[in-house]
Request: fold
Amino acid sequence: MNINEQPDIIDIPYPPSPPPVITPHYSRTLTDLPVDLKNYLYTYVYLWTTDDGSFWMYPISITPDNKLYGYQWNRNSWRLVELDRSQIDSLF
Reply:
């Protein structure tokens, strides 16, 4: 590599702040709603999973095979996660 060349750097959008402090009430399931997950990218979303989990997420990408990538809030920090759409029960 030439000394003036810079390596490719992948810019992964990071959440700008912690999520809201509220915990929303459970809403309808995704199977009842025609939801396009692309509409929720780069915003705070509260998710309920099919295994009864729930958490704030900051989605950054969705793949054609319905994998959702983003950051999950864990009490005091964000961590990068991957979810399959079939794992998502509902969202707010």
